[in-house]
Design a protein that fits this description.
This protein is mainly beta. Helices cover 0% and strands 49% of the residues. It has no helices and 11 strands. Strands 2, 4, 5, 6, 9, 10 and 11 form a 7-stranded mixed β-sheet that branches. The chain has a 4-stranded antiparallel β-sheet with strand order 1-3-8-7, with no helix packed on it. The chain starts with a strand and ends with a strand.
Length: 124
Amino acid sequence: QVQWVESGGGLVQAGGSLRLSCAASGRTISPYAMGWFRQAPGKEREFVAAISRDASRTQYADSVKGRVAISRDNAKNTMYLQLNSVKPEDTAVYYCAARFTNGLWNLYTDFDYWGQGTQVTVSS
């Protein structure tokens, strides 16, 4: 059973940076297309970024494009989300997600596996 564990969340001031990690235990991540989603209080879970299995392709939500970078290190079984120039509206629980296939996926229903989430809070 693969476990997906996010880390790196916390409190950050507006304009600051944060790097989130998603580590897989029990199996390599290389066969999985992966992504990041976030959910703010009272709102639906929304797509943030996606990355293909070999990291050759990435996709970003318009709300974060230019401020966020998704990456992965298959040798370390870890995916990352670099958040720059953060805004209070970036405050949410961030989830990593995985799908056992290639390609780019951006719908909540596309993904089969989820981490437990890590809280990011941006103060103004």
